[in-house]
Amino acid sequence: xxxxxxxxxxxxxxxxxxxxxxxxxxxxxxxxxxxxxxxxxxxxxxxxxxxxxxxxxxxxxxxxxxxxxxxxxxxxxxxxxxxxxxxxxxxxxxxxxxxxxxxxxxxxxxxxxxxxxxxxxxxxxxxxxxxxxxxxxxxxxxxxxxxxxxxxxxxxxxxxxxxxxxxxxxxxxxxxxxxxxxxxxxxxxxxxxxxxxxxxxxxxxxxxxxxxxxxxxxxxxxxxxxxxxxxxxxxxxxxxxxxxxxxxxxxxxxxxxxxxxxxxxxxxxxxxxxxxxxxxxxxxxxxxxxxxxxxxxxxx
Length: 300
Description:
CATH class of the largest domain: Alpha Beta
Oligomer: single chain
Pfam families: HTH_1, LysR_substrate
Shape: globular
InterPro entries: HTH-type_LysR_regulators (IPR050950), LysR_HTH_N (IPR000847), LysR_subst-bd (IPR005119), WH-like_DNA-bd_sf (IPR036388), WH_DNA-bd_sf (IPR036390)
Distance between the termini: 47 Å
Structural class: alpha/beta
Protein name: LysR family transcriptional regulator
Family: Belongs to the LysR transcriptional regulatory family.
CATH topology of the largest domain: D-Maltodextrin-Binding Protein, domain 2
CATH architecture of the largest domain: 3-Layer(aba) Sandwich
Helix content: 40-55%
CATH superfamily of the largest domain: Periplasmic binding protein-like II
Order of helices and strands: HHHEEHEHHEHEEEEHEHEHEEH
Mean pLDDT: 87
Number of helices: 11
GO cellular component, one term: cytosol
Number of strands: 12
Number of domains: 3
Low-confidence stretches: none
Radius of gyration: 23 Å
């Protein structure tokens, strides 16, 4: 429903090149270039910076891209309403989240929501944490659920809840007898960490630097479930938020111990949607449902 010029413009913005957009859209590159040139003439300003490694949006191009993404999603929402009954929640909710949240939490949320609205479907993308807000902004998903130290990419945050970080260990670990821990307590034991691109790793590194603690790191992994299994075997102490490991804890497979000064772990859990987008009822209802559930599940 969008004009071809805007569709081509968005694809070039997403991929970063006319040739890449041409291959994806099956449209001649010359036709795409003409449409983009026409847009630049219409707005009397460059929309892209032409660089050796590709095309990058100018500030004016960013504004147009934000408008076009919202317009594209609005058109899809209207079409969905026309095809279906407005008074019935049906359709697909597209979500981007991290592996730690996808393992159990998101599966439970989808199940509970579908118990009430059985005609709803979910398309869940597990991606690297830095890509979640980007996918929300570019309209690739409806909702992003992410741990964040900050939100540098402009998105609308439906709800932001501060979350603590806990040490995860086998129930027979010597430190399991403690009620609270310090980072120094962990120095004499093997630990397993997530990769440096995660907010969890970032806050742990900042805490260690501030306290002058050097951890005995025996495993680094981008697979959070693997880290939990390693801790379950007694291989090391791992780290997580309570919401990510609730099932492990309630089943008695692992124990979680908070830190004495957990405010140093300044991390939040965010529900993100596209800025200025008028959410369809389906997405809006699920985002509110998530906000309520997250508020009730943060504490151990």
